[in-house]
Amino acid sequence: MTAPVHGIDAGAAAEDAGRAEAFLAPHYRSMGAQLDATKLGTWLFLGSEVLFFGGLFTAYAVYRANHPDLFRYAHHFLDWRLGATNTLVLIGSSLSAAWAVRAAQLGRRRTLRATLLVTIALAAVFMAIKYVEYSHKLENGVFWGAAYRPSEEILSVLPPALREAAAIPRHVGVFFSIYFVMTGLHGIHVLVGMGLFAWLVRRAGRGDFGPRYYGPVDLVALYWHLVDMIWIFLFPLFYLI
Amino acid sequence: MTDSHADPAEPAAAPHDPHVLSPGVLLGTAGALVGLTVLTVATSRIPLGPFNIVLALAIAGLKATVVALFFMHLKYEGRFQAVVFVAAVFFAAIFVGGVVVVTTQYQPDLEAAARAAAAKATSARP
């Protein structure tokens, strides 16, 4: 159980041993018990997030099952290249978040700070691309529900067969209601994640984290991976099919 | 790590053994996710009818599993954490599936009723 983990910086580990105790909440017997309990709590929270988004995926599934032509029509308004780029950006940010956990576990403070900052930067790139997508739609009247009034300019991106009046399905705005709520709620999760990572950068700069105390890095990374996981489903469902 | 509870004499800041992912596993996981992203874009180009959505969801499910097992350490954690998460996904899936089955069942009735109401409205007009 107490076998040393290879690669831990011996000096950092010794310094860490003293600091870590300061972060042991009084109701836990040990750092290990604290980590296990907080991790289980985080997984329960992630389970509730799955159910939260599950309601929205249900709205998507019901509307799609009953109106498949609407989804085949409306997905032409989304640029799959931007969606695919954002998928790769989030995979990169998940990699840096997982790397930050490794760096914290090994007591490598510079790597920890660097990987946390890279994660924030990639999250910002994701939001910048979302901003480009949203503003293009909103400037062209592609709103949710009954407010959907597409401009001639945006209709010209449709394949010729779909530009005929007979090919336009009813209630296109409902697709965009579902689109804006699902990607918007996901975007809010990205912003929350950026705030959490900024908090970790501050604490990492103070030298809080090391081999005996890395829980917050681990738990924020878990949340971040869930945000990535949800996008993994949103991308094909909206942009590709 | 879980047996760190076992010893009551354990000091508060006892070292426990974190599971550290190697750079190879981290990069391999990210590489697999990028590869599967390329695959899902490529296969969405092939017209397969309703099978496109099945394939896209299967690839997304595989990607999510890869994220959970490696990036989220689920492969190396206690089984209970996996049970918590898989149970949530399972019940969300039951919810989605059940609601889709029910609504698609009644959709033809709704459409027929809408058509009948529209026909009645036109015939009632003088």
Any overview of this molecule?
The complex is a heterodimer of chains A (241) and B (126). Chain A has 241 residues and is mostly helical. Chain A has eight helices and no strands. Chain A has helices at 10-21, 31-66, 68-74, 80-106, 109-139, 152-155, 172-205, 215-240. In chain A, helix 2 crosses helix 3. The longest helix of chain A is centred in the first third of the chain and has 36 residues, at 31-66. Chain A starts with 9 loop residues before the first helix and ends with a helix. The model of chain A has no long low-confidence stretch (mean pLDDT 92). By secondary structure, chain B is an all-alpha fold. In chain B, 71% of the residues lie in helices and 0% in strands. Chain B has helices spanning 23-44, 51-71, 79-124. In chain B, helix 1 runs antiparallel to helix 2 (51-71). The relative contact order of chain B is 0.06. Mean pLDDT of chain B is 86; it is low at 1-15. At the A-B interface, helix 1, helix 2, helix 4 and helix 8 of A face helix 1, helix 2 and helix 3 of B.
Topology readout:
The complex is a heterodimer of chains A (241) and B (126).
Chain A: H1 10-21, H2 31-66, H3 68-74, H4 80-106, H5 109-139, H6 152-155, H7 172-205, H8 215-240
Helix pairs in contact in A: 2-3, 2-7, 2-8, 4-5, 4-8, 5-7, 7-8
Chain B: H1 23-44, H2 51-71, H3 79-124
Summary of the model, kept short:
The complex is a heterodimer of chains A (about 240) and B (about 130). Chain A has about 240 residues and is mainly alpha-helical.
